[in-house]
Request: fold
Amino acid sequence: MSRIDVGLLVIRLAVGLTLLVHAYNHAFGRGGLDGTARWFASLGMRRPRLQASLSAAVEAAAGAGVAAGFLTSAACAALVGVMIVAGWTAHRKNGFFVFRDGYEYVLVIALTATALATAGPGRLSVDHVLDLDWRLSGWIGILIVAAIGVAGALAQMTAF
Reply:
């Protein structure tokens, strides 16, 4: 086990578990899915209850995948898409800083997910154990993950 593998594990756990808790909050936090749906409606989203359910489900599944290092590149691309939607719909108008509800947090999560997809999950991952340890390396990998994330975000914003 190398220092890089340990570092990748720490990054995966930080990002993945953060998104799992975030998904839990959307689904079961104060106000639950109904509260999240009301918030999404206030942002102008159509079918906010469905959007809230899908958002929580994607955040939970992608967060779990990233934390475990399972289908890591796909999970990271899903997180990029979710963060683009959140950044565009909820945070963009507030500027950069998170303390002003800006896009700082979603930008860091999206860029970290992109970097993780290109670096791969490391040997301390389900992908490595199952020999699924493929990565989208280099600039091509960054472009692929970003393109998949943007495409998913555009599809979601078009639908909702």
